[in-house]
Amino acid sequence: MRTHLPIYLDRVIFEKDREVSGFLFRAENRIGVISQVADLFYEENLRIIHMTLSPVHQKYGWFLVYVDVTECQKTSEEIVEKLKKFDFIQEIKTIKPIEKGLIADSFFFPPTTNNEWVVIFRSSVLDGLFNILRERLKEAGNRQLYLEGYKVGIDAFDSYVRLLGETDKELLIRFGVEILISNGWGVGEVTEVSFEKAEGTFRVYNLFECQIAKVENKCASQFFRGALAGFCSKLFNRPMKCIETKCIRKGDNYCEFHISPK
Ligand SMILES: [Zn+2]
């Protein structure tokens, strides 16, 4: 298993007993923009706490920079005047703290991935959404989770093909594994795949669904198992089934799935 570190998606910064401020500017996304702004912040004793650039792949983007201004001798307005002198900056705003040390990003909305709106749910919220179906509807709930997952898998496949503009199976699998990790679902790896037989084995460490499942001593995945079946049905262009053979809820180190034709 590769080494991973958590990424902090917090949209709120809280630096106790510090003075914080935010600068939001629309600028040309060209070489040297960050270094010139960083040099100015360095000269003015501003410590960068957090930075966001959106969108990341266009000629112009919005840069949001939160800074610790405690050691700075100038006002935010004076810093804005200095920033305005850069020819690459077109528009600039300041974000005031809610109170000392506390600042929130209420500019960017909605968060998106692959041009689709996403909502960030903490795992404790997902816990309720997933487990209420299992607890109240028992097997019917499990079936519903599987079917929802199946649709998600098909949608994911279609959106990857739209993004990449091709249907190379190996590329789609490699891309799917990376997206799984970057979207926080789990750390996946393909352990075996046969394109001739349309079969494969897929392993996931820390799969979110099984992490939060209130199930002991048996395989717990329904939603992800369905997603894998849906994704592979499109990948292999035939109806596929997916069985979970190992699970962290049974004491295994990872969840493992076997995919084969239905
Ligand atoms: Zn599992």
Give the helices and strands, then pairings.
Blueprint: E1 12-14, E2 20-28, H1 33-43, E3 47-54, E4 60-68, H2 76-84, E5 89-95, E6 102-104, E7 112-113, E8 116-117, H3 123-164, H4 169-182, E9 187-194, E10 199-205, H5 208-212, H6 223-235, E11 240-246, E12 255-261
Antiparallel strand pairs: 1-6, 2-4, 2-5, 3-4, 7-8, 9-10, 10-12, 11-12
Helix pairs in contact: 3-6
Bound molecules: zinc ion.
Zinc ion (ZN) is lined by residues 207, 210, 219-221, 244, 247-249, 255.
Task: Please identify the structural class as seen in this structure.
Answer: alpha+beta
CATH class of the largest domain: Alpha Beta
Q: What is the distance, rounded to the nearest whole angstrom, between the alpha carbons of the first and last residues?
A: 30 Å
Residues in helices, as a percent range: 25-40%
Q: pLDDT below 50 for ≥5 consecutive residues: which ranges?
A: none
Number of alpha- plus pi-helical segments: 6
Query: What molecules are bound to this protein?
Result: zinc ion
Shape: elongated
Whole-number tally of structural domains: 2
